[in-house]
Specification:
With 435 residues, this protein is mainly β. The chain is 7% helix and 49% strand. The chain has helices at residues 23-26, 32-42, 58-66, 72-79; strands spanning 2-5, 12-13, 49-51, 92-94, 103-109, 112-116, 119-122, 128-129, 134-137, 142-146, 152-156, 160-166, 170-183, 194-197, 201-215, 218-232, 238-242, 245-249, 255-259, 265-271, 277-283, 289-295, 303-309, 313-316, 322-331, 337-347, 353-357, 360-364, 371-378, 386-390, 398-401, 408-416, 421-430. The protein has a 15-stranded mixed β-sheet that branches. Strands 2-26-25-22-23 form a 5-stranded antiparallel β-sheet, with no helix packed on it. A 4-stranded antiparallel β-sheet has the order 1-31-28-27, with no helix packed on it. It starts with a strand and ends in a 5-residue tail after the last strand. The relative contact order is 0.11.
């Protein structure tokens, strides 16, 4: 009988590892000289034009200025370019046609509506949002909007926004209540403003990732990349909020800038038997509350669960088994959300995955912190005739081979080191035809 432990199933990802790849990374396969010319050339541009350098394509020009390569057809049509991959050096590419409007619905979870004079319309993925539109999200919902210039905005539950024009080609989100999380490309055009406006204050943004929330006449922001210019509504006070800082503007107009709380560490993620997910912060951060979100993508543009808790334990409603992305942050006494810890989780409930590969069986389950496990095999249901009683040395899949051909009973038991209690996690049978 051979036994082999596999690799670690869950790994923690730093926030920086979730950033979009840089232009240099995307062209890492190109010789160094070409990359140098390309990135050097892209640094020479006006607000409305780009001067082509050797190696430039419409694909990378679109990504550099608008955060996505998908707008290259618009550039091709606007400039009457025959071959988007063979541009003549020193020619000027006109960028002036790009505008954030209209927006489109990239993702919707739960209920979100377009509010019109005649009533409200439930939004669907792919719907177009025009200038002047009013959008609301329901309880437990999330809506991700894509702008044509590469910026994206996630509108969580219980939020209401009005889309307004700012300058010639800019955009303002008038946040009546609720929250907006924004991802604005660092190279967004200079004359295309991106603002968050409330009755209390205004946030002016350039090239940043940040959150803004508005409730009870108080505007709060957390800045994770770039910077935000915060100004009260009266225009009598302003402050620059840099990466790693947060700010609070209250109804009196005062602006308070603080450092963000550090990301939580030593987080226990548990798949419960009813397919719910429980989060325990074992080393609490100095804060008043926690917020945890689950998404199906690593950039958290497709948020499917969003939960807050006044304690160090958060429990989500049941989810289908699968891989998900989790982030959790502490909230300070001002209501400012801190840096997030990012995790990839494999959610399976308390069930053990068992599959056969040729002459071997692969056992896999979610391991919790401060728990030890044993895989036991026997020839009888009562486990009186034990063939194997093995404690894995890591959290990965466990491979067992060269088993007898007759029916075998298996179970996985767990020992909680804190309570010294042993329980059966899951059980089943193996034979020639499978489980």
């Amino acid at each position: 009988m051979c036994i082999k432990d596999g690799g670690v199933m869950n790994k923690r990802k730093s926030w920086s590892s979730l950033k979009a790849k840089s232009l240099l990374q995307r062209f890492s396969g190109v010789v160094f000289g070409s990359v140098f010319l390309l990135t050097w050339g892209l640094s020479y541009a006006s607000d409305t034009h780009h001067q082509v350098m050797p190696g430039d394509t419409l694909w990378d020009i679109s990504e550099y200025y608008y955060g996505t390569p998908d707008e290259w057809p618009t550039l091709q049509q606007l400039n009457a370019i025959a071959d988007p991959f063979k541009l003549q050096p020193d020619t000027m590419v006109d960028l002036s046609d790009f505008d954030p409007f209209p927006l489109s619905v990239l993702f919707r979870s739960g209920e979100a509506w377009l509010i019109e004079e005649g009533g409200e319309t439930l939004l669907e993925n792919g719907d177009i949002i025009e200038l002047g539109s009013i959008i609301e999200t329901g309880v437990g919902s999330a809506l991700t909007l894509q702008m044509r210039d590469g910026a994206r905005a996630v509108v969580p539950s219980n939020s209401r926004i009005v889309l307004k024009r700012e300058g010639e080609r800019g955009v303002t989100f008038q946040l009546e209540h609720g929250e907006i999380e924004s991802y604005v490309p660092a190279n967004r055009m200079l004359r295309r403003a991106y603002n968050i406006e409330t009755n209390t204050g205004v946030l002016g943004v350039r090239g940043t990732h940040f959150r803004a929330s508005y409730a009870d006449e108080t505007l709060i922001t957390s800045v994770y990349e770039g910077s935000v210019a915060a100004q009260n509504r009266m225009g009598t006070s302003e402050a620059s909020v840099s990466e790693g800082e947060g700010a609070r503007i209250d109804e009196t107009g005062s602006i308070q800038v603080v450092r963000l709380l550090r990301q939580p560490e030593d987080v226990d993620i548990t798949s419960l038997s009813n397919e719910a997910i429980q989060i325990d912060v074992l080393s609490p951060v100095q804060g008043q509350a926690y917020r945890a979100q689950i998404a199906s993508d690593p950039n958290f543009l497709t948020i499917i669960r969003d939960q807050r808790s006044q304690g160090s334990q958060i429990q989500f409603e049941p989810l289908s088994p699968g891989f998900y992305h989790l982030r959790i942050a502490a909230i300070d006494e001002f209501g400012i959300e801190g840096d997030s810890a990012i995790f990839v989780i494999h959610h399976r409930g308390n069930r053990v995955s068992v599959k056969q590969e040729e002459s071997a069986w692969i056992f896999e389950w979610l391991h919790r912190a401060q728990m030890t496990y044993r895989l036991q095999l026997a020839t009888d249901r009562e486990f009186m005739k034990v063939l194997l009683d093995y404690e894995p040395q890591n959290n990965g899949p466990l491979k067992v081979s060269h088993l007898p051909g007759h029916e075998i009973f298996w179970r996985v038991v767990s020992l909680d080191e804190r309570t010294d209690m042993t329980v059966v996690l899951d059980t089943g049978t193996l034979n020639d035809t499978g489980q």
